[in-house]
TrEMBL record, chains A, B, C, D:
Oligomeric and partner information: Homotetramer.
SUPFAM superfamilies per the UniProt record, alphabetical: Chorismate synthase, AroC
Any one cellular-component term (Gene Ontology): cytosol
Entry binding sites for NADP(+): R48
PROSITE patterns, per database record: CHORISMATE_SYNTHASE_1 (PS00787), CHORISMATE_SYNTHASE_2 (PS00788)
CDD domains, per the entry: Chorismate_synthase
Pathway this chain belongs to: Metabolic intermediate biosynthesis; chorismate biosynthesis; chorismate from D-erythrose 4-phosphate and phosphoenolpyruvate: step 7/7
Name of the featured protein: Chorismate synthase
Length: 366, 366, 366, 366
């Protein structure tokens, strides 16, 4: 649990600081025979790349990925896949002053408490840039899921006061919204809200929703390794996330058992279905084969230009204004990070799921 | 990740079914020299024991714990501690009919999908009774935390429409409330609400809040093993939990960075403090030494007497009424389960935290 | 890595001291649908039970196993299987004096160094009695392997100066030898040797050889989790083992590449075979489908009646004679422990082996 | 256990193929504050670098290491350390023909069985080149051990028929021997032996011995995670190793308890010592504070020019001669790999060892 390794069968190990040589990930446990290349992985990285609209930092980062191992003649070999993105455009100068005080909302203080000192350049390892490795690995997990008929789709559900309804949104529209909000009217209102806060050198938060379709039933472990527990950890491990919900989430606290229970029934074609999906596709920690639905609360960007109170290393109370080029909101860029963490977790569990029944194991080795 | 083992340094392995021989846990990694005995562990188990008020099942279970290993002359020896609670009063007859259909809101269907069949007696391993092992291990973790000056305190924050304010509640009052709600006026209203739903053979949900005090700063791992991520998994692994929040949780989605950032400052005595604690005591996955605050959403009891639609094994749509003696609400009995999972997680992380700095490691081995 | 948990997919957690309440194991990750019962598991335990000949301690232990969870209507349910053997006949008096000094060859000193004190009754957790839990779990692993067509067979290869040749031995004869040595003439000579040493209040060591047949090719992980590396750890984790070999083992140091390489060839029926098996069925950490062969060196019983020099807690040099009823040799009783650890490891790896190829994973989930 | 990740607290993840882009390792769990740089790590890599004498392949590889993360202003920050060696001089042509048949003694066949196909260029991931990542990580572990006063020293104990005595060897002489054999007279005889075999296009094996001094007593876990068991796995995970011994190893099989037990005694200065060290510094899986001694059997290089029988993919029996530039012996280059694996394992266990006693944990957090 030393911190930067995730997963059991499908195991990823990330490394890299915001202003170091680069960011990377080693994927161990990827099966042989998966066709992947740098162009494909790049499509995932491009979704979290900054500088794509006025709603993200103007910082330009190519985030060009390179595959250093584990792929031979276009296919994975079953050995570790090392992916790296070398850093560019490191204006450390932007950050030098930060060494002297603790930025509110950032991990400067806790890192110093834990390690005795820190790489203060752009937050070092605690920077959102760390998620680059997650997304590169997420691209590989996504490719595996596609082969198994599982699709993971995340989008911006709410920003500040603007929220959309999952039933009403049209997934394809997410691409048309700079906020990845699949309801263009709502997206327009959210954009307005963000620009208003941005003008005041402030930032905003929001909620990301993620839907998984095509998940087989029976995946997940009882007790401690419940599928929803693993997803909660995976999502909560993303820097700015402060809350996670499965299905109806916190709403269940206000519901009665009769309202909350999902009834099964056979439709006219004798297919088993459910009259509702309050559980969000996971019951007793195990998938039921219906849509998995989860939400994550994303806090507003901690870095804001506006003056804030904090302390410096000379033990003085000071007012600071965080320089540098910041995202007025993290949510849109975090959507693909959520998708990636969900995909990585599902692959790990689908692999684990192969050993739950002796009859299937015998058939496999027959 | 086979499911029933939790933790890395402080590792617990639970076993047992609702109507099997018993329920137990093996605690591996408990340091030597901790004074514990059966009486002490029993005080934790008694808090989750049923039959203590009209708000829990009338089922009587002694839940008497026995220590089978790892303790010699009153102290832990450093070897695995095996704790067992033998089952009594198993009225399997109550459950026999359940074998034929899938109870809405229960894991009957998902277990069958995963394993091909299931121990249908009282939910078998998916029964809330599984938490007995967690609480027994939680008692040991709690004893270790006490030695380290860390206190974990959970209580019922809301039930249905009735919610209380953390600032206004008085911890000691929790003992006076059958709902473990430290605001007796609110508790009375909640009791009324539960009895009304119970009369309609229905059940209710709620929210549990947990506060950790005395936690050292610098505990938690960056990236995937963030302390809040681990707590989220620990809490979400409890059967009926559908959502987890740290600090302001989902509220952050509506806040701005200026509102959400916690400013540091030195008080007149030159002690470092914070002007707010929106982060809930964890930043960048690492504790900051202030109160850790988390909340868990508990769904209403799935077992209700009221008639519900579902399917049976003959592939028919049927109406069922769940017999047996159920809890109209799980929340009060789950409070100590939340405390236990938090305590177990914190011990694991405090042990891990000892190796983050070379200077401290050198001092330890000097 | 807290010490008493072994395995990844098929995970066992053992507990118990020599003179505590009992010894047990929790098996997590056993697939559903395996038929097992107490009688079957008992057959394994009986093989390590003492008091069966003049070559083991006269101590009588029933070692009666009980299944406390994970089995329903004769089949495993996929949930943790808790197995326990309650202790009887604990003549602690035999051991009380031991508290005052460190027995040569025993872990008394290292346990005190690690934990500050120890359960000195019969060695506590460091007693050979700890292996009871391994063997109970080994019985379950053995049952799974049988379903998959894999057989694990261990026997006594040498005792002191008496050694037998794998090619010449007849497996079935092992049952006829009180030393589990499948060459009765050699067994007779070994028995004589042991009795001679026993008469001088001394003890002897030996070598156990283990053969695995029916193992599929392609099982094992490259680099750190090589199948032979995992087997080496599993075997070396047995108390008295001081060396492990795979295939030709230490002999390879004296061989040339031309002698040591195993040539493949197709026989007249076009079946792939090998002209030799110096590798012992594992190459590059992965099984090649031929016999897996390994050997373990077992040290002589540390407890001997003969007078030995050591120190006591009053920091004095003293001469001691270990009282109690000891085994003049551990080897025969350890044979089933070796078989058990090999079986547990193979099951873990066969489960892991199901995820190495995408095409097979897709087929599984089709 | 997906294969390329090793360790628990001090966790390393290696990647890379013989003829891919490069070889690397990510070290997670290294404490903050350790001074390291590329020059220091290079000194370890240079010890396994080929082309340094007529006893290793003439293949020239710079093996220049680069630190990509985890180090800031010369010190480790506590975050993952990514180390990479980019490959050069990849004469894939040497290996193209290998794709068509299975080299005796190599993992070609087992990799194909496991993954369905393989990166056949120079053995891909199964190449000895994989150990580059282990040695780079070993350099970091070695630096940590030095800070803790622990020294790991390995050398060539035997080659073919030539063996040296640990008591007689002079460690410093190892540097003067091209075979890392600290007895120059024996080294000369071994060199002669190797050249004779090399002339016949053959290869030879040997034994590496490793001595650890300064190890604190009380390190290691009981039962499955015994320190010797972990070392056995670590060593056996090195490609060409076929056997591992601790202390007297296989010799114990021929000894009596009286001969094998190590007696404690207090010398005139009242220091606790032992009259012998047959146990090799580990008893009951826990270090006793005396020298740790282990040995590893290294098989002769599988690649030999001499003609050998094998099969090709057209299912024909063929005679092959392995082209390319091979090591006539692996032993000398493997010495630093053994040292590295031992160092990595010891660091992992020293970190684990910090949590065995409550009194010490309390002191740490005071």
């Amino acid at each position: 649990m030393s911190g930067s390794v995730f997963g059991n069968r499908f195991k990823i190990s990330t490394w890299g600081e915001s202003h170091g040589e680069g960011i990377g990930v080693v994927v161990d446990g990827c099966p042989s025979g998966l066709f992947i290349n740098e162009e494909y992985i790049q499509t995932y990285l491009n979704r979290r790349k900054p500088g794509q609209s006025e709603f993200s930092t103007p910082r330009k980062e190519a985030d060009k990925v390179r595959i250093l191992s584990g792929v031979f003649e276009g296919r994975t070999t079953g050995t570790p896949i090392s992916l790296v993105v070398f850093n560019e455009n490191q204006r450390s100068s932007d950050y030098s002053q930060i060494a002297s005080y603790y930025r509110p909302g950032h991990a400067d203080y806790t890192y110093d408490q834990k390690y005795g000192f820190r790489d203060y350049r752009g937050g070092g390892r605690s920077s959102g840039r760390e998620t680059t490795g997650r997304v590169a690995a997420g691209a590989i997990a996504g490719a595996i899921l596609k082969e198994l008929g599982v699709a993971v789709y995340a989008y911006t559900k709410s920003i500040g006061p603007v929220s959309i309804d999952y039933q009403k949104c049209r997934k394809d529209l997410a691409l048309k919204s700079p906020l990845v909000m699949p309801d263009l009217e709502a997206s327009a209102r959210a954009e307005e809200y963000i620009l208003k806060q941005k003008a005041e050198e402030n930032s905003v938060g929001g909620v990301i929703e993620c839907i998984v379709t095509g998940m087989p039933a029976g995946i997940g472990e009882p007790v401690f390794d419940k599928l929803d527990a693993a997803l909660a950890k995976a999502i909560m491990s993303i820097g700015a996330i402060k809350g996670v919900e499965i299905g109806d989430g916190f709403e269940v606290a206000k519901h009665t058992g009769f309202e909350n229970n999902d009834s099964f029934f056979y439709d006219e074609d004798q297919n088993l279905t459910k009259l509702s999906n309050h559980s969000g596709g996971i019951v007793g920690g195990i998938s039921d084969g219906f849509e998995i639905i989860l939400r994550a609360a994303v806090k507003p960007t901690a870095s804001i230009g506006r003056s804030q109170k904090t302390v410096n290393k000379s033990k003085e109370n000071v007012d600071v204004q965080i320089g540098g080029r910041h995202d007025p909101i993290i949510v849109p860029r975090a959507v693909v990070v959520v998708e990636s963490m969900v995909a990585i977790t599902l692959v790990d569990y689908l692999f684990q799921g192969m050993t739950s029944r002796l009859d299937k194991i015998k058939e496999f080795y027959k």
